[in-house]
Design goal:
extended; three-stranded antiparallel sheet; alpha+beta; 12% helix
Length: 67
């Protein structure tokens, strides 16, 4: 498998999988959808400001529902 990088360079091997733990927090809103934010467990508070993903709570599904 060959991968092209933004700088035009290509590699022939994929990087090894990286394991990490995610934490989540759900914010309940009176109006509109509740929001769930995922972020890495091992980052500082400063890094957490730029290392997160937020989506409406109903965009997530339990793994047990899909196995």
């Amino acid at each position: 498998m060959s991968t092209e990088h933004l700088d035009g360079a290509s590699t022939s091997a994929s990087p090894p999988p990286r394991e990490f733990e995610l934490r989540s927090v759900v914010v309940d809103y009176d109006v509109g959808a509740n929001r769930c934010t995922l972020y890495p467990a091992d980052v500082s508070e400063e890094e957490r400001l730029t290392h997160w993903l937020t989506a409406d709570e109903d965009a997530f599904a339990a793994l047990t529902e899909w196995r």
